[in-house]
């Protein structure tokens, strides 16, 4: 297969749906993508997921270049997590392109209902929290803690939570509404103000992260949780899952909005009736901080063990512990690629992996901030077999040649950016 050049075959075998998102590793988005893919696969459709990583916010502009790879002509429909995209003008630019297309576009987790929006039910989320505080713990007064007044998401949470508490007869005094950029993250000051005003029966936080911080500051002042005050978090397991401290919380389930987004796309493309997904969007999660659960000593002990042995995060030595050192110590680019092949061998469920680079990127010293029209594919792994070829090329307009090859079943292709030194693609 030496020097193979793909000639731009654009003959798709099935409809191709693009999913545009940022930080697909976040638990809520990851679960949503899983549901979307299953719905599309059941309808015999392929998915192309374009996701930035955003490990550093100073890399926003270079990461968002990923969306330049999207070939709008060969995509049949779009599912877009628009509110989660970051960077100057990226939402506006993408929206303008999509509005010009005569193709179905569904926006995920929007706050305003509409024909092309799937809206998460934050009223249901807030009601689940308020019902537990009222019906199980007879809470009469509560504090609302944390949030950013410049954020549409946090504003939505605050309004819905306070309204839900009010419907249950729970009072949130203005003095106990801790909300806004000037207080966000300053939990020491928040706890001092709570004690000064008079401790409420409970505190409802906008995230489990905030709840954990609040519990820590209360503990510093010998205020017991849940004996002296109940603490409830929000959006359990977000943005990343942890079981180290089982905080009482409410969990967002993305299945409803994700399935409905996919089903609207399927309905528009195949002309079949739209059948909405039936199911709850939220549920209460028992934890120690309201008294309905115990501190999870097993998870805490596992977390402690991992801190004691940071290079064996699963309790045993792993070949991945030194992957970075192994890769960067490769004497040649070919050796690097074969080392990469060795590491991809152990990734479960991986049917295909392609390393695509700008044309001649290994032979230029200038900063490269745009994708070239022709792309190199020096490494590929497909169906358990890896191959290395420095001369293998394809047209960027294809996005990925394998999309157009014969396959017996639909597939999901995940595109994510690779860049170096904050400025090279």
Written description of the protein model:
The chain is of the alpha/beta class and 425 residues long. Among the domains are: 16-119 and 254-280, 3-Layer(aba) Sandwich (Rossmann fold); 122-248 and 286-296, 3-Layer(aba) Sandwich (Rossmann fold), CATH 3.40.50. Helix content is 31%, strand content 18%. It contains 11 helices and 16 strands. It has helices at residues 27-42, 60-63, 90-99, 122-136, 152-167, 187-197, 208-220, 255-270, 297-308, 323-328, 333-344, and strands at 16-22, 46-52, 77-80, 105-110, 117-119, 142-145, 177-178, 202-205, 230-232, 249-252, 282-285, 352-358, 374-382, 385-388, 393-395, 412-415. The strands form 4 sheets. The protein has a 6-stranded parallel sheet with strand order 5-4-3-1-2-16, with helices on one face. Helix 1 (27-42) packs parallel to helix 8 and helix 6 (187-197) packs across helix 7. It starts with 15 loop residues before the first strand and ends in a 10-residue tail after the last strand. The mean pLDDT is 87.
């Amino acid at each position: 297969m030496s020097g193979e050049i793909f000639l731009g075959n654009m003959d798709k075998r099935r409809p191709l749906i693009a999913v545009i998102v940022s930080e697909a590793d976040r638990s809520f988005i990851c679960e949503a993508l899983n549901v979307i893919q299953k719905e599309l696969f059941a309808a015999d459709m392929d998915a192309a997921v374009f996701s930035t990583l955003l490990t550093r916010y100073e890399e926003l502009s270079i990461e968002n270049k990923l969306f330049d790879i999207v070939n709008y002509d060969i995509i049949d429909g779009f599912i877009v997590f628009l509110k989660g995209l970051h960077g100057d003008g990226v939402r506006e630019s993408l929206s303008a392109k999509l509005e010009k297309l005569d193709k179905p576009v569904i926006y995920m987790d929007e706050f305003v209902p509409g024909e092309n929006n799937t809206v998460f039910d934050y009223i249901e989320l807030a009601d689940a929290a308020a019902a537990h505080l009222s019906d199980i713990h007879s809470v009469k007064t509560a504090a609302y803690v944390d949030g950013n007044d410049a954020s549409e998401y946090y504003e939505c949470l605050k309004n819905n939570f306070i309204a839900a508490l009010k419907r249950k007869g729970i009072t949130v005094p203005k003095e106990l509404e801790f909300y806004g950029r000037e207080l966000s993250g300053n939990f020491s000051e928040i706890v001092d103000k709570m004690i000064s005003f008079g401790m409420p029966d409970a505190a409802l936080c906008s995230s489990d992260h905030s709840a954990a911080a609040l519990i820590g500051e209360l503990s510093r002042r010998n205020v017991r949780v849940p004996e002296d005050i109940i603490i409830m978090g929000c959006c359990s397991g977000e943005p990343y899952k942890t079981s180290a401290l089982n905080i009482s919380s409410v969990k967002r389930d993305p299945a409803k909005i994700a399935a409905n987004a996919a089903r609207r796309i399927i309905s528009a493309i195949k002309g079949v009736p739209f059948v909405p997904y039936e199911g709850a969007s939220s549920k209460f999660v028992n934890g120690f901080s309201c008294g309905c659960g115990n501190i999870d000593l097993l998870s805490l002990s596992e977390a402690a063990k991992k801190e004691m042995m940071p290079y064996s995060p699963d309790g045993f030595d792993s070949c991945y512990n030194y992957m970075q050192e192994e890769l960067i110590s490769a004497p040649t680019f070919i050796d690097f690629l074969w080392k990469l092949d060795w590491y991809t061998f152990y990734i479960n469920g991986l049917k295909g992996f392609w390393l695509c680079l700008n044309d001649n990127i290994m032979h230029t010293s200038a900063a490269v901030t745009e994708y070239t029209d022709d792309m190199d594919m020096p490494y590929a792994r497909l169906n358990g077999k890896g191959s290395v070829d420095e001369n293998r090329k394809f047209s960027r307009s294809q996005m990925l040649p394998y999309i157009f090859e014969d396959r017996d079943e639909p597939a999901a292709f995940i595109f994510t950016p690779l860049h170096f030194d904050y400025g090279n693609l």
